[in-house]
Amino acid sequence: MGNFGYLLQFLGLISSAIAVILFGSSMKKESETYDKYGTLFIHIQTILITLASIILMYALATGYFKIEYVAQYTDSKLPFVYKISGFWAGQAGSLLFWGWLIALCSSIEAFRIKKYGLKYKAGVFFALALTSGFFFVLTNFVTNPFKELDFFPADGLGMNPLLQNPGMLYHPPTLYLGFVLFTIAFAHAFSSLINNNNSSSWVVNTRGWSILSWVFLTIGIVLGGQWAYVELGWGGYWAWDPVENASLLPWLTGTAFLHSAIMYERKEKLKIWTYVLILLTYELCIFGTFLTRSGVIDSVHSFGKSALGPFFIFFILITGIGFIYYLIANIKNMKEETSYSVVSKEGMFYITNWLFTALMLVILFGTTLPILTQLFPSKLSVGIPYYNKVSTPFFMLIILISGLCPLLPYGNSKMADIIKNLWPSFIFMVVATTLIYVYGYTKPLPLVLFAFTSFSLFTILLQIFRGIKRNGIGIIYRNSRLYGALIIHFGLVVLSYGVIASSFYNVSVDKVVAPGETISFYKYELKVGDLVIKEKQNYVSVYSPVKVYENGKYIITMTPERRFYNNNKEPFAEVSIHTKPQGDLYLILASYSKPENIIGIQAIFEPFIVWIWIGCAIMVLGGLHGIFPFKRK
Amino acid sequence: MKKGTKLAIIGIIVIAAVFYLISTGFKQSGVYYLEVHELIKDPSKYNTKGIRVSGDVVDGTVVKDTKNQHLEFVMADGTGEKMNVIYNGIIPDAFTEEVQVIVEGKYDKDTNTFKATTLLAKCPSKYEAEVEKK
User: Fold this and answer.
1) Which chain B residues are closer than 8 Å to A157 by Cβ?
2) Are A594 and B67 in contact (CB under 8 A)?
3) Do A304 and B128 make contact, defined as CB atoms within 8 angstroms?
4) Nearest by CB: B67 against A90, A298, A596
5) 3-state DSSP helix/strand/coil percent for chain B, to nearest 5?
6) pLDDT tens sequence across A57-82
7) In angstroms, what CA-CA distances link A203 with A116, A158, A187, A284?
8) Each residue's pLDDT tens digit, A467-481
9) Which single residue of A2, A529, A615, B35 has CA 20 to 30 Å from B27?
10) Which of A388, A350, A449 is nearest to B13 (CA)?
């Protein structure tokens, strides 16, 4: 089975190589024949890799442990859904998954832009096939998911218990889709450059794809944070780990790109910015995969060391240099008028580009510092405080502008008009901030953050309200682009409230008690019960029922747990979370000892944290609303 | 002043802000990232800044007091250099005798002891497992 799968993925690589050659030639000399066969090979590639992927999934599902990859990541007792998720759980499989998604997108694109000019199509599919081909080179020659062992193991090693969480089913696929879909916008950008056509058609053309990539990337990142929150058992969702940063970097430039693209499309401005931002986003998607795969940086959840590094660096250099070469050749076409006021939409978009790019750079610097300083006698690295410190001012400004920017008109505007529009928000900001200060939330930094966020919140709500008042509720559908954007910005504000409250005002306690004793914590009384031991499908569970009382009133019994998986010696904590709009009660079974009859409970109260997930959901809905093709009048 | 110049000035301000933030953020929270032998060889060199050390837990050296959340073990690296580690706090689940760890804290040269304020246990075993060859 392994050999057959390998054959399919090898033929898939050959197909993408042929497509690269055919479209590469068609880029120089338009040719109907090359185009026809190139498109054919794009589809053949997709079919072959789809079959190969099905074989890998079948092997995972049926426990064909002769394939090393299957033996490494699954075992016979693993629940079925997690067997399938093994496809993207490991190194080799997830690279095949990457390539497969690009192949699928290429085929969809081949149908969608069938009628386009030959040379334009050549550029698009050259870039797409080159990217998918790159991933197939990796899975064919560097890390092969179909490699067979020379014996048939009785059982596999099983999946890391941390990965046995519903998060495994939605986090990696959504994140990868985000990464992959940006390739399409990149391919169109590249094609417009080789065609010397710097009109906004490529931006308009890929708008849906770009927003969709952004939506998936957003879901992937936030739900990754949510997964860390429920599974890793430390009560947080973001630790500035290199792997987390790797997914945030392309999100930052991708978000900037979406904004810049609006200027490109509507005003024929910020063109060079837009090209550079899509290049950066594309390369950062590849770079993120490289960071997590090459083992070049020590991260708590990176994959092991591997030989992939040089391949990635080579690919990033080649594509980066190629793109920049064509970009420079086009620059003379892109002379644009720069006469606009700073206090206008154009000015704000320009500043936004800078903010996102700069934020990306400071995070990139921190993340790659251990690599950069490897050449020197002592390796350096930065911790969480560095990231918090450097990113806070940027986030503050981004949130402020997210409220302000939709309000500002294009072109030049009078400062007096703008101030007239803004004073209600300003008053709201002062009132809201004073209120929470009086209420006892007096730490300066969160107070400033709260003020900025509240200013934005009110500005956004006011705009939506005024728009509806003037044009009726239908305007939300008729002008779905603007209202989609406003909804996204509103979601961002909701999310920031959650982040501010949960980062600055969480409380925790950490106590070892005998069963039957009560821990007094925050506004709760926690009555710790006896340990219970139960056997489950592929693990043994040890838990302690904790009765929670608030002001003497019984609320709920929570069961923080430790699990001993069959294939693992060490126990894994399974936290218990009680979610309420005003905050989560988060219990961890930190330790226990049967002979000594003691139970260690760590309790955390995370105020407002649920609003982070709700804010993300609103952002995603806003994004989808923005691309939904409502009929415009 | 031309509007274009104004915008360029904004760009320059942002770049300057980035450099300022990187350098101050780094001064305050940059840490040396070392292996055990590098630290032991010349500890005085790393006194001023925080230190993060990676290495392996030596078999049979772990002393664990779950009740008081106290942990002691010996940490070594590829070269065989060793140091004692003391850590107070919640012991991560993934922490066992065979695991790779990253500790952050202060090193005391006289007793060859590292007082760790944070302890990260890597779990490479299952993310990228080696299949045992028979």
Assistant:
1) 126, 129, 131
2) no
3) yes
4) A596
5) 30, 35, 35
6) 999 999 999 999 999 889 998 999 99
7) 15, 45, 11, 20
8) 999 999 888 888 889
9) B35
10) A350
Q: Do B31 and A380 touch (CB under 8 A)?
A: yes
Helix or strand run (H / E) with residue A36: helix A32-62
The pLDDT assigned to A56 comes to 96
Q: Do A389 and B127 touch (CB under 8 A)?
A: no
CA distances, A9 to each of A93, A155, A309, A370, B8 (Å): 12, 26, 21, 35, 50
As to burial, measured by CB atoms within 10 angstroms (0-12 exposed, 13-18 middle, 19+ buried), residue B99 is: middle
> Cβ of B122: how many Cβ atoms within 10 Å?
21
Chain B contacts in chain A segment 600-629 (CB below 8 A)? 600, 602
Total-model pTM: 0.90
CA-nearest residue of chain B to A598?
Answer: B67
Nearest chain B Cα to A512, which residue?
Answer: B67
Give the type of residue at A517. E
Mean pLDDT over A195-211 rounds to 93
Which tokens belong to A434?
A: 């004073």
Quote the tokens at residue A479.
């002008």
Give yes or no for A386 touching B (CB within 8 A).
Answer: yes
For the stretch A275-330, pLDDT in tens is 999 999 999 999 988 887 665 565 544 445 567 878 898 999 999 999 999 999 99
What are the φ/ψ torsions at residue A601 (nearest 5 degrees)? -120, 130
Query: How far does A571 lie from chain B, in Å, by closest CA?
Result: 6
What is the phi-psi region of residue A554: left when phi exceeds 0, alpha when psi lies from -120 to 50, beta otherwise? beta
